[in-house]
Structure formats: C-alpha cells, structure tokens
Amino acid sequence: MSEQEKPLPVSSSKHPDFPPEQRRLFREVLELMKTRGVPFAVSGAFALHQHTGIWRDTKDLDLFVPAEHASAALESLREDGFEVEVSDPVWLAKARHDGFFVDLITGMSNGVVLVDISWIERAVLAGVIDVVAPVLAAEELIASKLFVTRRERFDGADIAHVVYRAGNRLDWDRLLDLTGEHWEVLFWHLVLYHYSYPAAAEQVPSRIWADLLGRFRRDLDNPDRQSIFRGSLVDEKMFAIDVNEWGLHDLVREYRNRRPNLIAPPEKAA
Questions:
Q1: Is residue 23 part of a domain?
Q2: Is the separation of the CB atoms in 56 and 67 below 8 Å?
Q3: Is the pTM value of this prediction over 0.90?
Q4: pLDDT by residue (tens digit) across 82-95?
Q5: Which of 32, 89, 124, 183 has its CA 20 to 30 A from that of 212?
Q6: What whole-number distance in Å separates Cα of residue 100 and Cα of residue 27?
Q7: Residues 33 and 113 in one domain
Q8: Number of domains in the chain
C-alpha cells in the first residue's frame, strides 16, 4: 500500500497493538540513550498521549535532542546495529532497524524552532513502552507543532487537543517565550482552538487572550510597510510561487541558513 493509499489516522484513546519486536526495540533504544548519557525527550505519539490521552499508532520513536548531542546519539544507535543517516542536517537524523525507525529531531525543518537543553530539563518522566523516560513537556510539544502547517500534514488539531486537556496546567509565559516573534502563529492556533471548543475558552487565560489580541490590534492599526513576506515559513511549497515568481522574500532559506549542518554524520562528530 502506497503512502497515498494509507488511511488517515482517526483520533482515539484506543491503545495501539504494538508488536513485541517493536516494543523490544523501542525499550532498547530508550535504555541505550539513558546508559550513554544522551540528553533526550520522547515526543511524537507518546508525548501526545501523555498530555491528551490520545493514542496514535506509529512505527517511529521520536526523540528530541539538542543539536550538539545528535551525532553522539546517532553513533550510539549505529554501534547498536541500526542503519543511520542524516536526513537533513538542519533538524533531522534517522535510524532504522527491522522496519522500525528512530527519528532524532533537533528542531523544525524551517529552522525557526531549535531544541536546546532546557527542553530536556523541562521534560516529564513517564512510562514509555515500560521504560521510565523523559517525555516532552506540553509547552515544548506545542512549540514543536506550531509550524507543522503543510498541505499534507497539519498538527493544529494536536495543539487544540493539548490546550483542551492541559491548558489549565500550561506555563503560558514559557510558551510565549518559545514562540517569540512568531506569536501570530500561536495566536492562529489558539483561534482554531476557540473555534473548536467555544465553551472552553478559559483553558487559555484571559491575560493571554488580551495580550495576543492587543498585539494583533496594534499591528493592524500600525502596519509595517517594510515587513517581509513570511509565507514560506508556513509551507514553502504552497507559497513557492510567491518566492520563485513574484519575487518575495525567501525567509525559510534565510532561517535554515542560520542553522547549517547542526547534525554531523557520526564519522564527522568531534
């Protein structure tokens, strides 16, 4: 079955039936990272379940690591028998074994979000395939999904679910700090949240609504005519015509160029 033919996931709390070999392999990876002292936090389907109760079937184990530790993690996996590769030196390396995958993630593909050690320090300990491991905190989980806004994949529903289930426990100041100058993208996701859950607006504190609405109102009242086009950060393919034919600013290239070769292949690691 091709990728195009695979059915889209349907949100559910039903626990996936992970096969024994997958469970064994994921346990092995988590114990390996802990033994080698690699700072990491589990994300993906396991973090989503931790903060929402939603389960998602997956063949991937997503590990967020600071960029300076990615090559060591990749080398550890290679020594353990995995086939490894740097898929994109800006943000992603992969390890494969027996049809299952480990993704080592140091940020987001557009170069806006970068994982640092604070992401690992703020992780919460939880059971992942029978191993107690650090799992990405809700604030960092949201931040990691802010720019998953492609035509073929959009994580807005995941963010809405995290806010709905964990909003009253979120450190909203931390989330604003993580978002920084891209606060409008967070605002956009929160508007979607409000549209989806109009009776639960209080999951987002009133001061956060006031802050973001105030910023948005000020920008509307005082437009910056010199501001640059940012659509490529949202989806560089869907906004390609703006850059390639209409001559607008290629901001995604600029951001990615700020973070070249963050992940070195293991043989080049220091």
A1: yes
A2: no
A3: yes
A4: 999 999 999 999 99
A5: 124
A6: 12
A7: yes
A8: 2
104 and 166 in a single domain? The answer is no
Whole-angstrom Cα distance, residue 222 to residue 216? 10
164: domain range?
148-222
CATH number at residue 67: 3.30.460.40
CA-CA distance, 47 to 58, in Å (whole number)?
Answer: 12
Is a pLDDT exceeding 50 seen at residue 111?
Answer: yes
